[in-house]
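Researcher: Sequence recovery benchmark, item below. Answer with residues only.
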């Protein structure tokens, strides 16, 4: 039983952790981009020299709403005032291609982006498309993914899309084509079904933690696709025709993804990535000497001096520094973005280990503290900030929903079927029944839980029925059977993290009843230790109980989830047992007083009967 409980707890928390790390973006709240924000003093960028070709915003990725709003505003302003016509994103080639097609000439690409993109970014993509479509055809923006692929999804989705042609697939590539279509379908659905990528960083098979055995092992699949493609490369390119260039670039990005993963937890990884970004940026700059670029990266990437122990880097040159040391020296503008903790705070956050950075940023606040967004040029005399950035942008945090739609409540009703274990104190009872000669009843009592759990407007209602598994012991001719049940009503609170996760504390009130049947095999009246003279008799101990509980649940789909319950029930009555068979329903004062106080945990399946 304990092994079962440990397994259920392990699965539950692993799923939560995996969800937060691998599918984090899926569960962000649904909000629109605040495209009408005002960034005061943005006109300072108008005086930037005309030879500057790259503008880089450095964000903290945790501030999704602010970052999307800032990026859209910067793109519009720099396009209209400085002729910026190229957007670079901190994602791989495949995502850049998909997004570029969507904002320029094919709205159907939205369906390919929709599968594994957070709502905020989809809204940003839609607004970016609307703006781009309003521009004359010759002035429209182009998007490029310049980062290494760091996720396994976009590339197979793009490969599958390119292979969906009307012409017959040659026999030599038919098998691999079907494999790519299957893997792409899986990649589209993985987050909706909580299927996680494997952790095969060292090219060893490591299944990690999975919901079921049908989960694909991403790295093994990708390596197989790459190997089989290498054998039939010519046939693929002949079949694809004009699309073969994009197909080849996407395959290469998958190879680079595998290289990146093999460098996990090594200095090679972040150096490889920064060099990768630099090489891609240099290729774009060299390809068209008239183009100008805007990209919003993590803030460490836009530093123009070497970083030491920031962003978990050690003695590493960021992208902006590398570009500024190339032939494009003094053609790079870096903008560090800092965020107030909340709209009334005077303190701006940074993601650097050096606490002095935050102090330096405070010097630029002065009378601008009431502005939502404000751009300021860094003073040349600022020895701490000026080597890093040319400008800083102060932004209000939207943690208090300053740009989001009203909070959405995640209402649901679920039927839980659990198996658990509670700890009782049967010391006095066991001593009265068997003395110290033989073991008594196991105080670790196993039980089944049947629960109707509902959450509405953060209010939680719990109706819980617990049924104990019977226990039997013998003392000579006497056999004792113990069982019981509890009927409980609970009221509590659900902070409503998302429709997929609920962590709810609650109060419990109810009635618990334990039954003890005593049978004598000798058919001769005898004394049952600690009880009255009986031949065959049933006793009951009932009490009104109160307690506390906490419910953790993870909903895998629209109908199935996991839940874990921890509960403690009090019983201060410590009653004698009552005879309910054989004699009048009376209290037996010879019986040992027994309290039904207990605490325990249960785990099991949750069937969603309703969800908003």
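Model:
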């Amino acid at each position: 039983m304990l092994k079962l409980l440990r397994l259920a707890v392990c699965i539950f928390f692993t799923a939560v952790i995996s969800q937060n790390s691998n599918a984090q973006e899926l569960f962000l709240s649904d909000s629109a981009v605040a495209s009408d924000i005002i960034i005061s003093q943005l006109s300072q960028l108008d005086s930037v020299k005309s030879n500057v070709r790259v503008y880089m915003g450095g964000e903290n990725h945790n501030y999704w709403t602010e970052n999307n709003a800032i990026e859209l505003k910067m793109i519009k302003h720099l396009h209209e005032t400085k002729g910026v016509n190229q957007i670079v994103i901190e994602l791989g080639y495949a995502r850049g291609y998909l997004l570029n097609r969507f904002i320029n000439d094919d709205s159907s690409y939205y369906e390919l982006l929709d599968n594994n993109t957070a709502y905020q970014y989809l809204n940003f993509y839609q607004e970016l498309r609307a703006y781009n479509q309003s521009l004359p055809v010759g002035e429209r923006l182009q998007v490029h993914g310049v980062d290494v692929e760091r996720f396994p999804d976009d590339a197979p989705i793009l490969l599958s899309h390119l292979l969906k042609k009307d012409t017959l697939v040659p026999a030599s590539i038919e098998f691999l084509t079907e494999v790519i279509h299957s893997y792409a379908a899986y990649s589209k659905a993985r987050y909706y079904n909580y299927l996680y990528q494997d952790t095969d960083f060292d090219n060893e098979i490591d299944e990690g933690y999975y919901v079921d055995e049908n989960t694909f092992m991403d790295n093994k699949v990708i390596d197989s696709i790459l190997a089989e493609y290498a054998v039939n490369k010519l046939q693929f390119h002949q079949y694809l025709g004009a699309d073969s260039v994009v197909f080849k670039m996407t395959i290469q990005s998958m190879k680079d993804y595998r290289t990146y993963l093999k460098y996990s937890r090594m200095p090679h990884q972040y150096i490889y990535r920064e060099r990768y970004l630099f090489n891609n940026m240099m290729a774009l700059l060299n390809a068209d000497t008239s183009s100008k670029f805007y990209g919003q990266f993590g803030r460490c990437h836009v530093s123009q001096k070497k970083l030491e122990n920031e962003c978990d880097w050690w003695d590493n040159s960021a992208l902006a520094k590398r570009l500024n040391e190339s032939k494009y020296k003094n053609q790079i503008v870096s903008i560090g973005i800092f965020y107030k903790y909340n709209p009334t705070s005077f303190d701006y956050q940074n993601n650097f280990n050096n606490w002095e950075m935050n102090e330096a940023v405070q010097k630029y606040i002065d009378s601008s503290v009431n502005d939502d967004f404000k751009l300021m040029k860094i003073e040349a005399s600022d020895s701490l900030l000026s080597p890093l950035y040319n400008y800083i942008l102060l932004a209000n945090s939207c943690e208090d929903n300053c740009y989001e739609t009203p909070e959405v409540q995640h209402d649901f009703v679920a039927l839980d079927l659990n198996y658990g274990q509670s700890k009782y104190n049967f010391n006095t009872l066991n001593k009265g029944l068997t003395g110290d000669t033989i073991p008594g009843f196991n105080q670790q009592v196993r039980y089944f839980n049947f629960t109707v759990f509902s959450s509405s407007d953060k209010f939680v209602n719990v109706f819980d029925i617990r049924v104990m598994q019977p226990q039997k012991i013998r003392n000579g001719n006497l056999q004792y059977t113990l069982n019981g049940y509890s009927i409980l009503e609970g009221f509590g609170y659900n902070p409503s993290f998302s429709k997929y996760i609920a962590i709810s504390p609650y109060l419990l009130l109810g009635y618990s009843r334990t039954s003890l049947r005593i049978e004598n095999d000798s058919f001769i009246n005898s004394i049952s230790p600690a009880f009255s003279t009986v031949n065959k008799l049933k006793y009951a101990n009932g009490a009104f109980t109160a307690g506390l509980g906490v419910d953790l649940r993870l909903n895998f789909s629209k109908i199935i989830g996991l839940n874990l319950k921890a509960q403690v029930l009090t019983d201060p009555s410590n009653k004698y047992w009552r005879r309910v068979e054989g004699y009048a329903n009376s209290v037996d004062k010879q019986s040992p007083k027994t309290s039904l106080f207990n605490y325990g945990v249960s785990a099991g399946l949750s069937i969603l009967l309703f969800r908003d």
